[in-house]
């Protein structure tokens, strides 16, 4: 609802006053038509079953330009009965909300990319968020490790997460986060998830998504508690001083790109996903010299493997079970 515009450019000199006035006028007209339609529908239905919640847009332009529209939000009783919150393209638009409507929730579409940005938006008065960075971190193989309130400050900044593609976790039998109660941490360890990533198993990203959503839930629970206790500002500063400002850089390859994530321009454009299989009998089809050299070594490797005396494990199944690496099953 309302004009779609870049929040940064809306208040800049790039958009003239006349265009901003047109934006506010169109939004006012659309909202009036929508609310009138909802009012008529509400009168036809049982009030006890009415469940529609309308969030009114606040444009990222000066409050004076959209003053008529905003005044209608709190002067018109019909609008007040139907509007249950606000949606904002920019956190700075919070300033345009009149004090009479401060009690209504505010949804931000600004898509913060770090927990620091979330805390800053909360300090400005944002209540609800869209957080695509959770999916982006999961697909990059990043496991969140931040909590709110932050632990006591240390001499070095703590990482917001860690890259599970790193081979350092290939033999790590600990959970992703100590004392974490998510499904991934209760039932699996870092070595298993690192193995799944290396094998390109979809379960790896499923477990990371379960963990990351659990960490975000705990993060917001801590924020709500700090607001109730009146300690949010102090604990926000502590968080900024404790954690790094950015998530770890992506090092591994994410899951295969789905059609809704990428627009394919045409037949001349290369595929978004690399081919999963190649004919080993046709080394000339290799995409680079390294792959061709690897293919050429296959016959030699097969002969060496045939004559190799493979080592026998020097630990028993019971010992593997004791360290949590395996589980013995009765036949």
Describe the structure.
- The protein is an alpha/beta fold.
- The chain contains 13 helices and six strands.
- The chain has helices at 7-10, 17-44, 67-75, 77-82, 115-124, 133-139, 183-187, 190-198, 202-229, 232-242, 289-296, 298-307, 317-322, and strands at residues 54-58, 83-88, 106-108, 128-129, 142-144, 161-163.
- The strands form two sheets. Strands 1-2-3-4 form a four-stranded parallel β-sheet. A two-stranded antiparallel sheet has the order 5-6.
- Helix 5 (115-124) links the parallel strand 3 and strand 4.
- Helix 5 (115-124) runs antiparallel to helix 10, helix 6 runs antiparallel to helix 9 (202-229) and helix 8 crosses helix 9.
- The protein is elongated and about 85 Å long.
Q: Quote the average pLDDT.
A: 83
Beta-strand level of the residues, as a percent range?
A: 5-15%
In spatial order, strands of the major sheet run 1-2-3-4
Oligomer: single chain
> What share of residues is helical?
40-55%
SS-based structural class?
alpha/beta
Q: How far from one another are the termini?
A: 63 Å
Q: Which regions are unreliable across 5 or more consecutive residues at pLDDT < 50? A: 9-13
Quantity of strands, as a count: 6
Q: Sheet bearing the most strands, described?
A: 4 strands, parallel
Give me a quick take on this structure:
The protein is of the alpha/beta class. The chain has helices at 7-10, 17-44, 67-75, 77-82, 115-124, 133-139, 183-187, 190-198, 202-229, 232-242, 289-296, 298-307, 317-322, and strands spanning 54-58, 83-88, 106-108, 128-129, 142-144, 161-163. The longest helix has 28 residues, at 17-44.
């Amino acid at each position: 609802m309302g004009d779609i515009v870049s929040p940064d450019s809306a208040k800049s000199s790039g958009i003239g006053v006349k265009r901003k006035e047109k934006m506010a006028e169109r939004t006012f007209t659309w909202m009036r038509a929508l609310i009138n339609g909802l009012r008529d529908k509400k009168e036809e239905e049982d009030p006890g079953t009415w469940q529609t919640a309308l969030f009114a847009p606040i444009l990222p332009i000066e409050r004076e330009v959209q003053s008529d529209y905003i005044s209608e939000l709190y002067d018109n009783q019909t609008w007040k009965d139907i509007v249950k919150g606000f949606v904002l393209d920019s956190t700075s638009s919070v300033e345009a909300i009149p004090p009479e409507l401060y009690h209504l929730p505010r949804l931000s579409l600004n898509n913060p990319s770090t927990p620091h940005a979330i805390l800053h938006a909360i300090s400005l008065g944002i209540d609800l968020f869209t957080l695509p960075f959770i999916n982006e971190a999961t697909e990059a193989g990043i496991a969140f490790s931040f909590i709110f309130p932050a632990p006591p400050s240390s001499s070095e900044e703590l990482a917001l997460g860690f890259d599970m593609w790193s081979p350092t976790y290939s033999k790590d039998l600990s959970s992703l986060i100590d004392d974490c109660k998510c499904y991934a941490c209760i039932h699996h360890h870092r070595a298993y998830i690192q193995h799944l990533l290396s094998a390109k198993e979809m379960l790896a990203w499923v477990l990371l998504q379960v963990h990351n959503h659990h960490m975000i839930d705990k993060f917001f629970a801590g924020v709500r508690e700090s607001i109730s206790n009146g300690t949010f500002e102090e604990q926000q500063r502590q968080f900024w001083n404790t954690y790094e400002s950015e998530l770890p850089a992506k090092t591994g390859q994410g899951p295969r790109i789905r059609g809704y994530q990428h627009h394919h321009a045409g037949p001349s454009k290369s595929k978004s996903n690399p081919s999963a299989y190649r004919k080993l009998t046709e080394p000339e089809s290799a995409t680079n010299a390294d792959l061709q050299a690897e293919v050429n070594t296959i016959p030699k490797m097969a002969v060496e493997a045939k004559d190799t005396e493979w080592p026998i494990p020097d630990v028993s199944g019971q010992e593997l079970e004791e360290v949590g690496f395996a589980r013995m099953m009765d036949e």
